[in-house]
Task: inverse folding
């Protein structure tokens, strides 16, 4: 039997989280293009579909961490808390999918396993896990930045007699920890949120910590109706202020320099931002914290002192208080009662830096010195192959058989963190070397989708089919992003997913654009105004 020719769409979207949903909406409903989207998940949600672990919640206020593209949507939706939990964000995305009738364009439970560019036809072919194919002029990767979980290959993990759970791919059923011995590896944002929640119910919870983190209070509270009314009345101005802020939130009280302030002034600012919570301490206290080691030392010391105030046992507090690396060079987690968890009799902390994990055994985890910790459940909160991982997982081949994996063997090479030379018409929403994770994600996504769709409009208007960066523009962008990173303290970080080296064998390269969202947006506007400078159009 002859298999039918693969269908050719105008655009293929990979992913059905915040980015994929918006891309489908704009391409299909605003541009009337023939679009198909794919997602490996069973439904919409992306990150918020997979990360269902106890305690999972957003850490940018949802009044800001939400779509801005539709005034009615932002007026009608009500968030119950300042920083809502995963289930509520998933309901929001579910509502968006219904409201704009997006599901009819999405194939769920379908993973894209290959994307291949056809030079002659100027078309992409997408292959699914089931071996089906379809084609399109454009591909929009909405595959996410933190969507490929890292599962360390501890020897023996397959022989563990209990259950192994991954925060980044959590079961859909309720997991009860009552009366069980739980071990958790990892104290990044996921681990810290999960530990704070699981500590309340577990029989025993043992935290296996390698590098302590500078976690600070999230400051969550139920939505205040007055505050909500005021925000909704002024939403356009709030979004504008967000887009003009380095991190994409409308914070506006940053002082220029921690080192120029007196110790009393510093303390007053740090206390104020600490008490108000969110990313204020990180991004709205002093402007030199991420750039000047002496400034950074002041905030690092402040956080260490606050940890010591909250943790009763001095030896535990010493282990929890980070030393030897600057605050903010690992992505700062936000927490609720995380440090107080260690004051509970059922919670203990084990240092696996000085005494590393040797193997997982049928009964638990064995450390290098031979001590063994016994668990019924082992939770891996061990992070993600960030930024490049989701793209490389799609097995992308561009012009002349060039594999993205080869093009990026020494780290990502992109122009604007959005396209790569040799990979025409492939738009990487919040790709590596864009502000992505250092910008409020829904806004970063909208900006990138809008840029991509405007580029398609421009091609159509000028009678062309293909857009791709020039190798020189790509080279210059890579140099520019590296130079920006060098001006910060990021290169002084220990192992971190910001730098990619949390994954064994992945080159240590900065994966984010550190010039801030406003500078990035201005650069994009400049490039468009100059007739897509740095891009070859054909
Ligand atoms: O991952 P991580 P995450 N042996 O990479 C440890 C976003 N997010 O999933 O630091 C022992 O930060 C590792 O130790 P070390 C947010 O952007 C947001 O927590 O490498 N330990 C570290 O402690 C966040 O930054 C929210 O020494 C091992 C941990 O595992 C990003 O996702 C919530 C190990 C991994 O921390 C990733 O966070 C959750 C090993 N072999 C996530 N391998 C919000 O609040 C790894 N570790 C919105």
Result:
């Amino acid at each position: 039997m002859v298999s039918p020719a693969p269908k050719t769409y105008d655009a293929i979207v990979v992913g059905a989280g915040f980015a994929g949903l918006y891309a489908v909406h704009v391409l299909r409903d605003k541009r009337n293009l023939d679009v198909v989207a794919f997602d490996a998940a069973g439904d919409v949600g992306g990150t918020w579909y997979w990360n269902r672990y106890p305690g999972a919640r957003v850490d940018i206020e949802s009044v800001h961490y939400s779509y801005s593209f539709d005034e009615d949507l932002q007026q009608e939706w009500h968030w119950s808390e300042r920083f809502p939990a995963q289930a509520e964000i998933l309901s929001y995305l579910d509502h968006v999918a219904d409201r704009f009738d997006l599901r009819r364009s999405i194939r769920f439970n379908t993973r894209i396993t290959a994307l291949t560019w056809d030079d002659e036809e100027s078309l992409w072919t997408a292959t699914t896990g089931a071996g089906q194919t379809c084609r399109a002029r454009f591909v929009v990767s909405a595959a996410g930045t933190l969507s490929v979980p890292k599962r360390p290959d501890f020897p023996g993990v397959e022989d563990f007699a209990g259950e192994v759970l991954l925060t980044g791919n959590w079961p859909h059923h309720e997991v009860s920890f009552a009366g069980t011995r739980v071990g958790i590896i990892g104290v990044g944002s996921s681990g810290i949120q999960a530990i704070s929640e699981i500590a309340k119910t577990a029989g025993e919870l043992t935290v296996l910590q390698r590098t302590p983190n500078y976690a600070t209070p999230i400051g969550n509270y139920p939505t205040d109706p007055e505050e909500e009314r005021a925000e909704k009345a002024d939403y356009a101005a709030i979004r504008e202020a967000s887009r003009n802020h380095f991190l994409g939130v409308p914070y506006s009280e940053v002082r220029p320099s921690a080192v120029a302030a007196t110790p009393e002034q510093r303390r007053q600012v740090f206390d104020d931002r600490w008490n108000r919570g969110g990313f204020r301490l990180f991004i709205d206290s002093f402007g030199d914290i991420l750039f000047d080691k002496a400034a950074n030392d002041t905030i690092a010391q402040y956080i260490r002192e606050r940890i010591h105030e909250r943790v009763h046992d001095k030896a535990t507090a010493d282990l929890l208080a980070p030393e030897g690396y600057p605050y903010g060079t690992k992505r700062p987690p936000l927490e609720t009662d995380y440090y107080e968890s260690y004051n509970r009799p059922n919670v203990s902390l084990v240092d696996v830096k000085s005494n590393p994990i040797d193997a997982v055994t049928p009964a638990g985890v064995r450390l290098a010195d031979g001590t063994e910790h016994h668990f019924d459940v082992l939770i891996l909160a061990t992070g993600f192959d960030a930024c490049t991982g989701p793209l490389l997982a799609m097995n992308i081949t561009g012009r002349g058989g060039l594999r993205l994996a080869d093009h990026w063997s020494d780290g990502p090479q992109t122009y604007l963190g959005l396209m790569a030379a040799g990979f025409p018409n492939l738009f990487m929403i919040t790709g590596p070397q864009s502000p992505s994770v250092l910008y409020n994600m829904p806004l970063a996504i909208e900006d990138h989708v809008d840029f991509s769709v405007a580029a398609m409009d421009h091609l159509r208007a000028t009678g062309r089919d293909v857009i791709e960066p020039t190798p020189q523009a790509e080279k210059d962008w890579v140099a520019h992003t590296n130079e920006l990173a060098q001006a910060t303290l990021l290169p002084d970080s220990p192992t971190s997913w910001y730098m990619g080296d949390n994954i064994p064998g992945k080159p240590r390269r900065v994966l984010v654009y550190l010039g801030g969202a406003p500078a990035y947006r201005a650069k994009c506007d400049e490039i468009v105004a100059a007739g897509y400078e740095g891009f070859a159009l054909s």
Q: What stands out?
A: The chain has a mean pLDDT of 97. The longest helix spans residues 441-461.
